[in-house]
Amino acid sequence: MSIRETDIPALARGCAVLGTGGGGGVRAGSLAAARAVGEHGPVPLVRLAELSPDALVLPLSGIGAPTVSHEMIHSEDEPKRVAEEVERLFGRPPAAVMSSEIGGSNGVQPVAWAAWLGLPLLDADGMGRAFPEVQMVSMHVAGLPADLVIMSDVAGNVVTIRPVDGLWSERLARAVCVAAGSSALMADYVVTAERARGAVIEGTVTRALEIGRATEGAADPLAALAAELGAVRLITGKLTDVARRTTGGFVRGTATIEGTGDDRGRTLVLELQNENLVAVEDNQVRAMVPDLISVVDTETAAAVQTEDLRYGQRVTVLAWPCDPLWRTGKGLDTAGPRAFGYDLDYVPVEELAHG
């Protein structure tokens, strides 16, 4: 299978939904991917089992504040500089590109990065969604050492970091990112295909395509999307307040949705840190990380990223279960509510929905 230009709109829709508000808006990434595929041809989509055991997998993602990524757009140069540094360090070039996070633009732009590098794209990622911090990846949960981070920015700088663990990789990479203007391209957990087995979440590019295609031609796009996701509808209403600030390389804030129609009289508040982290109604948590919470347009079911939230938008908030890896002890320690500073015991969204 290959990713063709005609596949990119569906991939972008699916990645936007999986982005849970973060990962960067998909428009710029879609344009870059379409142009790259148009110039270089379709990008082969490969499974991990198709790579030789010693093949190097290059996980790539944009790091920084989504609000900044609109203005500091990655070019062909950044992935090439990162790949050259990988080849210098390992003595051989990478064999495949992998998205570090399938959510948002970070799920779409790897198509362009792979096309520019002349490499296949791995049907996998490190999150199954989007998360804001470097250590919040399946490779960290699986126990792989976070001993190498390579970053490149629009100014041409290349920074190689040798952190002692995942938490230090976040601190150091974030500092470099802020110095670069809160936007950079990053490779971390560069591993062989053999070491990647069981440490990455497989099939997520295909999953994003399935989600994106679920609403194509649907009479009721919202119902079609919710059914495809197996999602709980938390509220349908109007955005009445958005408080957002960019600080420390993140977008932080809250969004308030007042119910309309059958939900009139209800109010849902979303807590944001690049992604939608916690949904609260009447002081009761309705959904929380690591489960996925996505804001979508009520009419079209198109996902609305945190940087695009505006007063008066008619939206529906959907929530659905995360990959089982995130519900393990190490997974919750890494990306559960307490990892973001919330004094909450994790409860699965399906239990909250029926509780």
Automatic annotation (TrEMBL):
InterPro entries in the cross-refs: S-Me-THD-like_C, S-Me-THD_C_sf, S-Me-THD_N, S-Me-THD_N_sf
Domain S-Me-THD-like C-terminal: 166-349
Taxonomy, superkingdom: Bacteria
S-Me-THD N-terminal domain boundaries: 6-161
Gene3D superfamilies: CV3147-like, CV3147-like domain
Coiled coil ranges: none
Pfam families: S-Me-THD_C, S-Me-THD_N
Protein name in UniProt: DUF917 domain-containing protein
